[in-house]
Amino acid sequence: MKPSNRISDDYQSENFNRDERYEIAAKRVKRIKGFYVHLLVYILVNIFIIAANSMNNSNNDPLFWSWQTFSTAFFWGIGLVVHSLSVFGKNLFFSSNWEEKKIQEFMDKDKSQKWE
């Protein structure tokens, strides 16, 4: 895997030149910006949905507090949390060099097997 294709926190290491570090940092900024746009759209759409439901239900109708009113916010919120983890959190399942370790593991395994 080329270092320029990785988006990682170690872009300041000695292995990357200035252009590669800039490219990685620019990609990271785009991902962060994408998350904030997603968050803004989430807030605006859900405010609209909840406001529209509250205007349709007058006099504190119990239907306002039903599952349908908040289901979009709930499920979309789960997606938003996953998006935030992918942007700001560490990789929970695969570390930044997981692929390289796995490739090396397979190469070592193949080297130890004799194909006679």
Strand fraction: under 5%
Spans of at least 5 consecutive residues whose pLDDT stays below 50 are 1-6
Overall pLDDT: 77
The dominant shape is elongated
Radius of gyration: 23 Å
SSE run: HHH
Describe this structure in words.
This protein is mainly α. It has one domain. It has three helices and no strands. Helix 1 runs antiparallel to helix 2. The longest helix is centred in the N-terminal third of the chain and has 39 residues. The protein is elongated. The two termini are about 30 Å apart.
What topology emerges from the helices and strands here?
Layout: H1 18-56, H2 67-88, H3 98-112
Helix pairs in contact: 1-2
Entry keywords:
116 residues, mainly alpha, 0% strand, disordered N terminus
Provide a concise account of the structure shown.
The protein has 116 residues and is mostly helical.
